[in-house]
């Protein structure tokens, strides 16, 4: 049983690595230019992923399941603050230059939840892991576009600034909005027509 799970996990990760390698090779051989690469990223994050979020949340979860999951937002928030505190000590012990300390602390505390975390979790744990990844994503996005960006700005300018309009726009990204729409529809017991759900899939 355990070997089967391990084999499935390794297989899922290998598929992701093969896809990454294929993309790298194609880009290296000029199959994609910078404009096309940007287009793919925007297509995934602004169209495909939000639609996938709505579809998966509505198909796989009930209001009871979501209400049980959302309070878990506490755990990623605590873990990120702990990582941030640890990063302060790491900066001192590793003697990270002051001009790079903010960037280091920001990267130490945050992760790439969508492009790396989501496919890896889906490969390892299947669709059942999606709400947990998205709860982490909510905390991670908020943390990065507030404290994380502030720390990075301090590296470049010596002082950080905070723009509420930009921050809100970045925090409420299309994938997160797709997740929130899916959650609201499930909590309100709203069912979308089949032809729309098929398009989302």
Automatic annotation (TrEMBL):
Record keyword Cell membrane present: yes
Annotated membrane topology: Multi-pass membrane protein
Stretches assigned to coiled coil: none
InterPro entries: Mem_transp_PIN-like
GO cellular component, one term: membrane
Lineage top rank: taxon: Bacteria
GO biological process, one term: transmembrane transport
Record keywords, A-Z: Cell membrane, Membrane, Transmembrane, Transmembrane helix, Transport
Pfam families, sorted: Mem_trans (PF03547)
Spans through the membrane: 6-27, 39-58, 73-91, 103-124, 130-152, 172-192
Intracellular or extracellular location(s): Membrane
PANTHER family attached to this UniProt entry: AUXIN EFFLUX CARRIER FAMILY PROTEIN (PTHR36838), SLR1864 PROTEIN (PTHR36838:SF1)
Protein name: Transporter, auxin efflux carrier family protein
Organism listed in the record: Lentilactobacillus kisonensis F0435
Species classification: Bacteria, Bacillati, Bacillota, Bacilli, Lactobacillales
């Amino acid at each position: 049983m355990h070997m089967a799970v391990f084999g499935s996990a390794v297989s899922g990760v290998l598929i992701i690595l093969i896809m990454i390698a294929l993309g790298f090779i194609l880009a290296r051989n000029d199959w994609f230019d910078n404009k096309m690469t940007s287009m793919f990223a925007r297509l995934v994050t602004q169209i495909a992923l939000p639609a996938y979020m709505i579809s998966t949340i509505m198909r796989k979860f009930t209001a009871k399941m979501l209400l049980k999951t959302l309070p878990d937002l506490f755990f990623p928030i605590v873990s990120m603050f702990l990582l941030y505190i640890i990063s302060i000590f790491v900066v001192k012990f590793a003697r990270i230059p002051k001009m790079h300390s903010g960037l280091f602390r920001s990267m130490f505390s945050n992760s790439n939840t969508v492009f790396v975390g989501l496919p890896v979790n889906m490969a390892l744990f299947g669709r059942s892991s999606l709400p947990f990844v998205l709860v982490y994503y909510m905390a991670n996005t908020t943390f990065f576009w507030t404290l994380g960006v502030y720390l990075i700005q301090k590296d470049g300018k010596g002082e950080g600034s905070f723009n509420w309009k930009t921050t809100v726009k970045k925090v409420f990204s299309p994938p997160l909005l797709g997740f929130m729409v899916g959650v609201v529809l499930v909590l309100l017991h709203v069912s979308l027509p089949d032809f729309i759900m098929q398009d989302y899939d």
